[in-house]
């Protein structure tokens, strides 16, 4: 389990998160949701060690992730697809995926699995990343993270701004990762995505937790989630 216990974090002296606690379980999708500025991206950056914690800790399988330098967090089995994708634009699809494989010892099978999941990447294999469409770039960002063979996968609004067919592909891939036993933390604001994918839903507002809903509670009280998102 990925566990956050009383995590507080921010940027410099500006505190954003205040005592956030939740557990992401293997084989489940945890949706982290709230309006803009709620602290969703700050939360996943804190998990990855990209922001120092002001209080609390992040643990995974008994190891304290928040004690590790950021470059060691992926080696612990944590994959991350940030907003903006952060691809190497001048590098090809193949080279970007190769970067992902460096962490897991260049497992040959994982590359085949990624290209099977995202056939479009196979078609664009020798193409530079910056020339791909937005949806293709998102597939590549996810594929690169999946090359780590992560046990935990953090996705920060992966379908933002994509056309419907690409959204479907990204959601299908997210569900497949869950079905393989990965603990998925999905930052999401789209109501349909949350209700379709979320096994549990963490509600954030102004850096504080306002509740955790199960899939059953989301189904029985859809207006509660809608009000939280301002829909």
TrEMBL record:
Domain ABC transporter: start-end pairs: 2-231
Q: Which UniProt keywords apply?
A: Amino-acid transport, ATP-binding, Nucleotide-binding, Transport
This chain's source organism reads: Shimia sagamensis
Protein family membership: Belongs to the ABC transporter superfamily.
SUPFAM superfamilies associated with the record: P-loop containing nucleoside triphosphate hydrolases
Q: What is this protein called?
A: Amino acid/amide ABC transporter ATP-binding protein 2, HAAT family
**Which Pfam families did the record assign?**
ABC_tran
Looking at the UniProt entry, the stretches that span the membrane are none
Q: Any idea which GO molecular function terms this record carries?
A: ATP binding
Q: Which CDD domains match?
A: ABC_TM1139_LivF_branched
């Amino acid at each position: 389990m990925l566990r956050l216990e009383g995590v507080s974090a921010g940027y410099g002296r500006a505190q954003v998160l205040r005592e956030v606690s939740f557990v992401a379980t293997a084989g489940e999708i945890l949706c982290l949701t709230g309006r803009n500025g709620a602290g969703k991206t700050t939360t996943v950056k804190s998990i990855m060690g990209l922001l120092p914690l002001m209080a609390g800790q992040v643990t995974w399988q008994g190891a304290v992730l928040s004690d590790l330098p950021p470059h060691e967090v992926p080696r612990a089995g944590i994959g991350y697809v940030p907003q903006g994708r952060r691809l190497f634009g001048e590098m090809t699809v193949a080279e970007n995926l190769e970067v992902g494989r460096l962490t897991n010892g260049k497992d040959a099978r994982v590359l085949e699995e990624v290209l099977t999941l995202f056939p479009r990447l196979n078609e664009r294999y020798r193409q530079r990343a910056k020339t791909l469409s937005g949806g293709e770039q998102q597939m590549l960002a996810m594929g690169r993270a999946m090359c780590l063979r992560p046990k935990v996968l953090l996705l920060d609004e992966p379908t933002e701004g994509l056309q419907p067919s690409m959204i479907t592909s990204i959601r299908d891939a997210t569900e497949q990762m869950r079905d393989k036993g990965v603990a998925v933390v999905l930052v999401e604001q789209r109501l349909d995505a949350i209700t379709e994918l979320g096994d549990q839903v963490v509600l954030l507002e102004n850096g504080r937790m306002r509740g955790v809903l199960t899939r059953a509670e989301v189904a029985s009280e859809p207006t509660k989630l809608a009000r939280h998102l301002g829909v």
